[in-house]
Specification:
By secondary structure, the chain is an alpha+beta fold. Helix 8 (436-452) runs parallel beside helix 9 (483-501).
Length: 732
């Protein structure tokens, strides 16, 4: 074993320095561990990339006391990553390093460190996947044993990271339905901070499994050292940050073990979900850029393929789907330059037609009363108009009023001896995804649709209910506490089958709005619905928070009606457009109700969005002024990786006469380059003073541009909203 270490050490500095030090690196970051054979695996360092000399000296001087994966049982009064009960009842673990392996993968280096209990045939393999083209290290553990009987896993975090105390601040997201992705920033104080989810099905309405730690005091967008962490899991999670009497904040992330104690059989492998770690010394926005790049290149389905501009039927007609309305909506979106039409809820059900949310989930047959020419008729109509066609489904669910439920009442999650607790519409139930037959049924919902209609281009996959009934007919009585985990294994296996067969299909993860914005689902989904709340003003706050971890290409953002259907706020179309254009642009409105002038504005916006789409969807984000700072404006920009193009957004958040709004400095430009400024979606009678003018990147980043607080429009068109979108193109 020693020889192997030495050999690798000689050939590959980047992975090994000595038999003890394990260096795991990305282009700009390093994780340093100490892993002596027969000794304990210790954490030494995580942060900016270490030089050879530093690694060498640290190997001699930094005597870490911190286990890289703390286990419970022997002298550990603190929190543990892993706690088990062996088959003989022993509650302790003591893990020693057995061996270290390094595997070169496509664009990544996988370091695995095998640990074994000193006494029991109990193993943990720690896995560290370091990307070589982006600053991200994914960490997870693989737990197995060869004990006679099952070992009970009481706690099973994916990873642990100590963060050195100082003035460390935590940024994370909280919210609720229609108010997802709200940013909260707080200093870490003694005690335990827990961020968790227990929904069972969706996991990002009320909290998020991603966090950032600002290491240099109050968080700044474009300066300071920041560690970002994202747990890549679609189910219940728990993030713990324990600030105890030591010099560290102890961060643990993993599956939420509440009501999920797991009984691990002999030779079974329990793989925890990845915790993705990143680090940037360019502030919160720098950390976001790392997440976004990693998402596009490695995590998000079709992450580098530009998304289409669509019209979704939901807020336009709700359940009132019929052929005439669908054809009219398709005509309208095509005439405005849109590329895709998505028929939302309400198109299905035979015995029980889907007229409200009380029936039909599970009966995925077209309602011929509403759509006599079927889906094929709609697809033909879409093609005649030169656009693509997409469709809504909610495959994990049923209504008790459905043919599916009548046929398979045993397919739904239900606690034995208990009445069903029902969800949306008073009749919704969740299917038992632990059951392979149900998994097969769900796979075939998509497969049948696609087999019959290979030209379906887009699927909106919804999930509108939590697990409210803890009970599975499929799992045996010893396995009932596996339900939450088994559900998500089932979900993932269905998604894998679908993706294997339909890699190019665009699939949106919707879950009653933003319930599925997480990196557990995104490998199988191209985008997610940020929120059922389409109010442009509130969206600024929600999309701001969401952009901490997720790229614009994945954030579906739609222009909707005024007054808004959720907040009843009346916001002018220009502002609604300017907000929607900062994400994956779409429309969710009845175009029939729009004036010709409004349609023209949208037509122009869609054409301009097509121009800037690569910068927005594939570019680098720089958040400039936060809406949460309450300065009266919010502003952000995207720059192309080559820094030859940029799009700048500015939204006024409140309106007072003679209010002093800040002048917003830009970021992310090349200081020596020169850029021509062009306003998009212009409604003013006169162009801005700097329209078509050229500025250096240095000037724009030091001073920004003075933006008028109001629009220059006819008096009868004046209102209290104001927003600007500027396109910057490098001329030299
Ligand atoms: C959920 C989604 C909405 C819409 C409805 C349809 O609430 O979030 O966008 O699709 O379901 O019932």
């Amino acid at each position: 074993m020693r020889n192997l270490f030495l050999l690798i050490c000689l050939c590959c500095f980047s992975c090994y320095l000595s038999a003890r030090s394990i260096l795991i690196s990305t282009p700009k970051t390093s994780l340093l561990l100490s892993a002596p054979v027969d000794g304990e695996l210790k954490f030494v360092y995580y942060g900016a990339k270490l030089s050879e000399v530093d690694v060498h000296t640290m190997g001699e001087t930094e005597k870490s006391k911190l286990l890289a994966y703390p286990v419970y049982g022997l002298n550990c009064p603190s929190e543990a990553a892993l706690a088990v009960k062996h088959s003989d009842g022993n509650m302790t673990l003591q893990l020693k390093v057995v061996k270290v392996d390094v595997l070169q993968q496509n664009k990544a280096e996988l370091t695995t460190i095998l640990l074994k209990d000193k006494v029991y045939p109990f193993y943990v393999k720690m896995c560290y996947k370091a990307y070589q083209d982006v600053d991200m290290i994914e960490i997870w553990s693989e737990i197995s044993h060869q004990e006679k009987n099952a070992v009970v896993l009481n706690q099973f975090a994916s990873a642990y990271l100590p963060v050195r105390r100082g003035n460390v601040w935590l940024s994370h997201l909280y919210g609720a339905w229609a108010n997802e992705g709200r940013l909260v920033q707080e200093p870490l104080e003694p005690g335990m901070k827990v961020i968790k989810n227990k929904d069972g099905v969706r996991n990002s309405h009320t909290a998020h499994a991603e966090v950032m730690f600002s290491l240099d005091g109050q968080p700044q967008e474009n300066a300071g050292r920041v560690i970002g962490a994202a747990l890549c899991y679609s189910g219940n999670y728990k993030l713990r940050i324990d600030t105890d009497e030591s010099d560290y904040h102890h961060f643990y992330a993993g599956i939420n073990e509440d009501n999920s104690i797991y009984s691990l059989k002999k030779n079974e492998l329990f793989r925890t979900p990845e915790l993705a770690l990143t680090y940037s010394d360019e502030g919160l926005s720098g950390t976001s850029r790392n997440f976004h790049r990693w998402a596009r290149l490695h995590k998000l389905a079709n992450g580098t393929k530009l998304r289409k501009i669509l019209l979704n039927s939901w807020e336009g007609v709700y359940f009132g789907i019929n052929e005439e309305r669908m054809n009219q909506m398709m005509t309208d979106i095509a005439s405005m330059g849109g590329e895709l039409f998505v028929m939302d809820d309400g198109w299905f059900g035979d015995k029980y037609p889907r007229r409200t949310d009380k029936t039909s989930l599970g009966d995925w047959v077209v309602d011929k009363r509403k759509l006599p020419s079927g889906i094929e008729g709609l697809i033909d109509a879409a093609h005649q108009r030169g656009i693509k066609f997409g469709i809504w489904i909610e495959p994990e669910m049923a209504n008790t009023r459905s043919e599916l439920y009548e046929k398979h009442p045993d397919w739904v999650l239900k606690a034995p001896e208990r009445e069903l607790v029902l969800g949306r519409g008073g009749t919704q139930v969740v299917l038992d995804l632990t059951n392979p037959e149900v998994q097969d049924f769900i796979f075939h919902i998509v497969d049948n649709l696609m087999a019959k209609h290979p030209d379906i281009n887009y699927i909106k996959w919804d999930a509108n209910m939590s697990i409210m009934n803890h009970g599975s007919n499929y799992l045996n009585k010893e396995e009932q506490s596996d339900l939450y985990i088994a559900y998500h294994r089932g979900f993932e296996s269905i998604c894998q089958r679908i993706r294997l067969k339909y890699p190019d299909l665009t699939i949106q993860a919707c879950a009653q709005g933003g319930g599925r914005a997480n990196y557990g689902v995104l490998p199988y989904f191209d985008e997610f619905w940020v929120s059922d709340n389409t109010d442009a003003l509130q969206r600024i706050y929600m999309q701001w928070g969401t952009s901490y971890f997720f790229p614009a290409i994945a954030m579906a953002s739609h222009i909707s009606a005024a007054p808004n259907h959720q907040t009843f706020r009346t916001i002018p179309l220009k502002y609604r457009i300017d907000v929607a254009m900062s994400g994956r642009l779409g429309m969710e409105i009845q175009p029939k109700d729009m004036t010709d002038e409004e349609k023209e504005l949208c037509r122009k916006a869609i054409a301009e969005y097509k121009e800037i789409r690569p910068v927005v969807q594939l570019g680098d984000i720089y958040r400039l002024v936060s809406p949460y700072d309450k300065l009266g404006v919010a502003s952000l920009m995207y720059t192309s990786p080559e820094k030859d193009k940029a799009v700048f957004y500015w939204w006024k958040l409140e309106h007072f006469y003679n209010q002093h709004l800040p002048r917003v400095k830009m970021a992310g430009l090349a200081p020596n380059a020169e850029y021509r400024i062009c306003e998009l979606n212009r409604i003013d009678k006169q162009p801005l003073d700097f329209e078509g003018k050229i500025f250096s990147g240095a000037y724009l980043m030091a001073n920004g541009l003075e933006l008028p607080a109001n629009h220059l429009v006819d008096r009868n068109k004046k209102n209290d909203y104001s927003s600007r979108v500027l396109y910057l193109e490098k001329v030299k």
